[in-house]
From TrEMBL:
Classification via InterPro entries: UPF0047_YjbQ-like, YjbQ-like_sf
NCBIfam families in UniProt: TIGR00149_YjbQ
Top-level taxon: Archaea
SUPFAM superfamilies hit by this protein: YjbQ-like
UniProt protein name: Secondary thiamine-phosphate synthase enzyme YjbQ
Family recorded in the similarity comment: Belongs to the UPF0047 family.
Length: 129
């Protein structure tokens, strides 16, 4: 399954949990679900979907990776986005139990946009046991 996600700012998070969960087939009782963002300047993370924490995550990435001063900036000015996405990683794998994503109480899947606004593509694959 393929998902398209629109982002609205350069560095932001978007909760994609429900959209990924919708891709779990009705007849799949147990297995795994893998989600992969098909871009080098965005990532996926399992984290709490709480606005202040999402803001903290964005601030943390800004503090950790400066906006400017990278060699790749000579090409297209977005080295910070690549570096931030490299820290996060492009994918998550989640168990499926009783036909649903087996996430903890406070866990959500967040797309972390590092070079927006953009249209992002996620591939979602499920495998049964």
């Amino acid at each position: 399954m393929e998902l398209t996600v629109e982002t609205e700012s350069r560095l932001t998070t978007v909760d994609v949990t429900d959209r990924i969960a919708a891709g779990v087939p009705d007849d799949l009782e147990s297995g795994t679900c893998a989600a992969f963002v098909e871009h080098t300047t965005a990532g996926l993370v399992v984290q709490e979907d709480e606005p202040r924490l999402r803001g903290d995550l964005e601030s943390f990435l800004r503090d950790l990776v400066p906006d400017e001063g990278h060699a790749h900036d000579q090409l297209d000015g977005n080295a910070d986005s690549h570096l931030r996405a490299a820290l996060i990683g492009p994918d998550v794998t989640i168990p499926i139990d009783d036909g649903e994503l087996a996430l903890g109480t406070w866990q959500s899947v967040l797309l972390v946009e590092c070079d927006g606004p953009r249209t992002r593509t996620l591939s979602v694959t499920t495998v049964g046991q």
